[in-house]
Design brief:
Elements (H helix, E strand, L loop, with lengths): L4 E5 L5 E5 L6 E5 L9 E5 L5 E7 L6 E10 L9 E8 L3 E6 L10 E7 L7 E12 L2 E7 L3 H10 L3
């Protein structure tokens, strides 16, 4: 059985709380003292329980997904000819893998479109600025999301 991981977001915080999953005891830590960022850390409570914690330094919660979509280097969303698989989403960004090899660099502006796997199958169309490239994995920041898309994405990302 896979053990759960307690995610704690530390961006912009001076102090964070780690909560024991067994007894509920809270341990407060100074965010500036946390060295293991984006790595799972095994923590032991004074009650003896051990559990996993992941300190993340991102601004917004990121939801793991597997959504098919399209993208284009041109800014016309109707010309999204290249296939992608959205691996994660947040309120302000997207992480996806390209299907095929394409020359994409940090700073490029792409047009993306994909459907959420919610009941409405909401179509999201947006331009993104590429923030990171790691092989076929692209990390990007949304810009010019319309109000409807922002609202639907917000509901979709609720835990």
């Amino acid at each position: 059985m896979e053990e759960s991981v307690q995610k704690i977001f530390i961006y912009g915080k001076s102090e964070v709380a780690v909560i024991c999953q067994a007894c509920g005891k809270v341990r407060r830590l100074q965010a500036s003292d946390i060295e293991q960022i984006n790595h799972i850390v095994r923590v032991q409570c004074v009650c003896g329980a051990r559990f996993n914690v992941l300190f993340e330094k991102r601004i917004h919660y990121r939801k793991v997904t597997h959504l098919e979509g399209r993208y284009a280097i041109k800014l016309d969303p109707d010309e999204c000819l290249c296939l992608l698989v959205v691996e994660n989403l947040s309120r302000n960004g997207i992480g996806f893998k390209t299907i095929g090899n394409y020359d994409i660099k940090e700073g490029d502006v792409l047009s993306v479109q994909f459907s959420l796997d919610n009941e409405k199958r909401t179509m999201i169309k947006s331009n993104i600025t590429v923030k990171s490239v790691n092989g076929k994995y692209i990390g990007g920041e949304f810009h010019a999301l319309d109000e409807h898309a922002k609202k639907e994405l917000g509901f979709y990302l609720l835990p």
